[in-house]
Amino acid sequence: MTERETHNPDDTLDTEGIPWLKPELVTRVVEALESGDHSLVRSLVSPLGSADIADLLEPLRADQREVLVELLRPDFDPEILAELDETVREQVVEQMGAEEVAAAITELDSDDAVEIIEDLEEKVQQEVLEEIPEEDRAILEDSLSYPEESAGRIMQRELVAVPTHWTVGEIIDLLRSDEDLPDDFYDLFIVDSRHHPVGSVPLSRVLRSKREETVEEIMDPSQKAVSALMDQEEVAFLFRRHDLISAPVVNTDNRLVGVITIDDVVDVIDEEAGEDILRLGGVAEEDFYGAVVNTTRRRFTWLLVNLLTAFLASLVIFQFEDTIARFVALAVLMPIVASMGGNAGTQTLTVAVRALAMKELTRTNALRAVGKELLVNGANGVFFAVITGLAAAWWFDDPRMGAIIAAAMIINLVIAGFAGTAIPLGLTRLGVDPAIASGTFVTTVTDVVGFLAFLGLAALFLV
Amino acid sequence: MTERETHNPDDTLDTEGIPWLKPELVTRVVEALESGDHSLVRSLVSPLGSADIADLLEPLRADQREVLVELLRPDFDPEILAELDETVREQVVEQMGAEEVAAAITELDSDDAVEIIEDLEEKVQQEVLEEIPEEDRAILEDSLSYPEESAGRIMQRELVAVPTHWTVGEIIDLLRSDEDLPDDFYDLFIVDSRHHPVGSVPLSRVLRSKREETVEEIMDPSQKAVSALMDQEEVAFLFRRHDLISAPVVNTDNRLVGVITIDDVVDVIDEEAGEDILRLGGVAEEDFYGAVVNTTRRRFTWLLVNLLTAFLASLVIFQFEDTIARFVALAVLMPIVASMGGNAGTQTLTVAVRALAMKELTRTNALRAVGKELLVNGANGVFFAVITGLAAAWWFDDPRMGAIIAAAMIINLVIAGFAGTAIPLGLTRLGVDPAIASGTFVTTVTDVVGFLAFLGLAALFLV
Lengths: 463, 463
Fold this sequence. Notes:
Chain A is mostly helical. Chain A has 23 helices and six strands. The first copy, chain A, has helices at 9-15, 23-34, 38-45, 50-57, 62-72, 78-83, 86-96, 98-107, 110-119, 122-131, 134-144, 151-154, 168-177, 203-208, 215-218, 232-242, 262-280, 292-318, 321-326, 329-357, 366-395, 399-429, 434-461; strands at residues 161-163, 187-191, 197-202, 226-227, 246-250, 256-261.
């Protein structure tokens, strides 16, 4: 097998003719904005697509962004609004005003329109909705009536549905003559007389079939209809599992009301993964472009919870004040036990939370997962007991100190393994997102157990 | 706007006719396996698709899994292999033997085949490759010659490419007669005489165009060709940004060699998000179904790094032994300062790592991001200085103790804000994944600074 790793993958980005937003371009636009050279800004921006323009707008300073939006406004591409991050979008919407925003939204597919509207503040939302023509507004309001993060919110209304008795020829003729079709579509949905979906046909199969064949003959009857009420995370799981490109959405009467396409699902996957990452890091929903005040307030809550648990750990230490006063080495060494327990617990918990999100950790193997973590953490507990015990005994020239920290280490790491799986499993069963709350619980347990085991053993055997 | 939240989204999963793997089904299969009722197992499993069977195999005990694979073997669906998790797949491959695995792989699309083969151990890989017919093997070996995690590894060779002068009618006729087409495809790729891609046409546009139109007239010339050497994370970014469903892949001579479809990209997105989550949690690449020994060894490395940094923090405390011996309250309170700094630093770092991964944090706004974090952490530092200072002063009836912990808190939180952004930014510039290394650096900084500031101020002003 020959190796072809001679080319640096980074080189290829520039040579492929991809309309990619390069950092150099951002820098040049910023410089042009600073110097007030608006015709240069226009010529730099005009070759860019809507996604790139959104990427360009986001990192700009608010005043620079305002100037650029003003330059783009005469022929503003509505897609840009759909691509923008929430905080930045709010500012752009405010600048453009309800009327212009409503006009832009009306041009978009209904899923993009809903995504923009649902994030607006109540008052702005009403103003924009009022400017939208009756018929379009009714559709948007119906979508907004579904719960947040449900299939009904991310579905698009524009789709191609045909009855079972149609032939491939009739479909092609319809598609060639009908002007009012979605921009892109990947499957045809087959409906019965009550508009219930009964199957779907990928376009590649339509193209490969003879004109006289009926859709009933070529359709895929395994019906992967999604309820409009289904949670978007479940929708993403369904798409992943069955490698879907699009799926029909039905209302509570099982009537076909929309379609979810894979690009919406990719956004959901990014959103859910980002949520899990931030929550595990002790950050509730946060917007990278959010204002300092909001960010400070959101993080404050989590830090306050942490402060309370830190005081709890301090209370444990407080019980052993006399012992520490006699053996100050205990104060020097005690953070090691707590820190190792916290890290081992976080490792276990991270694996458990990800496995729960990917539906790998289920009722079937929950007990086995806890058992495995006890073994893994127990084994590492023994290794680190030996290392830390020897180091502590040598440092303070006291074998008892080594034995005590070794025992505390094993106890704390085993407890970390147990807490790291049992807590997220328990929270999931209670219907709480394990990503958001497990971290505090687990480190509280390992701090308290760490200090208690180490100082408690010291009080028993050292004094 | 009416609310329609009367239905519980969970209810709908069971009523939609979705071939969904329900936990009850897993339980029933396990029971049937335990009781040795093989015909019941077969009847339970036979309606399931390949993805569901893979999901069913994964959580089983190794011996149960072996029995189920044996039952499935007479007409084993090759797709199951592609869907399985790496560790479980290795065991199934071992059970089936090289010849049967090779036969299964030959039936798959080339991207799935490569995914299975690349994960096999060197020796097994060679055995399987030798059993694969010459022509297929050459294609697989070519794909394997591209770097791991590159576009060349995830691309599929089967695609539909047509020359520019063809008409829509000619294409439809070709598709209707050609047996050797990919199972599913979403775009036609247009190539010039040297087989360089010059454009693409989504199938929906082919269906909407008249028979006499040429592809040149209807194709999308904005060429989003991907180099086979491009990193898969970049590929995912490109798909997301341009809402692509499929993209042509070119070799170093710019010849069209394959296609990447969105379902492969979804796997990449999951993989990369999972990697970031695990790395931030201090877990190097880990497989949920991995053996205890491997898991223990992988986690050991990270815990060892943490032990060294914990000893570093202990060394700092050691410098203040005399002060602590005189004021044991310092030992009680010092973990609070370190813990709050660690949490604030982790918050900042998590946001920065995610923003870097989503390309929201760039050179353009790096300085502003650091500034924002200094403000956010400074503000929270002041709030928590007041809370903790008052609590400490009251607890130990000593206003100086309150003032000292308050000052240390502000110092440590500001440093946490700086380290939490500067460290991931610096690592990224050095080409190191910030998710894997930032955590240790940041908590080492906040531990050391926390203990140093608190105990140092105490030594200066308390004694």
